[in-house]
């Protein structure tokens, strides 16, 4: 973060890049930002950074491919049901049902309670 002294993500000074054996311009292409202003004062953090870099670069290769699963349907005769299907009307009905769901549930509950009272 800003002002915390600890860089967010992998920000590396040029030296730790050299330790890990990654050129600064290559690092940019694999999503590691190199900060020329940073200096690692102690060797521990230098080693840690180099380790992190090695970990970050061990998986190189194509990202998992996206396979398009496409199922072809056989041609068939249109049924009567499909002929009479009204898309807009059914969408409006679905929307109305979704909207009135809570109210209808409440009314049903009240009706059930009144039935119980009538039976008494």
UniProtKB/TrEMBL annotation:
Record bears the keyword Ribosomal protein: yes
Alphabetic keyword roster: Ribonucleoprotein, Ribosomal protein
The record's annotation in Pfam families points to: Ribosomal_L13e
Write one Gene Ontology MF term: structural constituent of ribosome
What's one GO-annotated cellular component?
cytosolic large ribosomal subunit
Q: Which GO terms describe its biological process?
A: translation
The record's annotation in InterPro entries points to: Ribosomal_eL13
Q: Which domain of life is it from?
A: Eukaryota
Which family does the similarity line name?
A: Belongs to the eukaryotic ribosomal protein eL13 family.
- The entry's protein name is Large ribosomal subunit protein eL13
């Amino acid at each position: 973060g800003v002002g915390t002294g600890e860089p967010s993500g992998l920000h590396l000074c040029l030296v730790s890049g050299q330790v890990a054996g990654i050129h600064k311009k290559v690092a940019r292409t694999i999503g590691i930002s190199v900060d020329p202003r940073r200096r690692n004062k102690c060797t521990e953090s230098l080693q840690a950074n180099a380790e992190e870099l090695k970990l970050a670069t061990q998986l190189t290769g194509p990202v998992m491919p996206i396979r398009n699963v496409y199922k072809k349907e056989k041609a068939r005769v249109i049924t009567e049901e499909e002929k009479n299907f009204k898309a807009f009307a059914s969408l409006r009905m679905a929307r109305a049902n979704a909207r009135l769901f809570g109210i209808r549930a409440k009314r049903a509950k009240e009706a059930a309670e009144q039935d119980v009272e009538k039976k008494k």
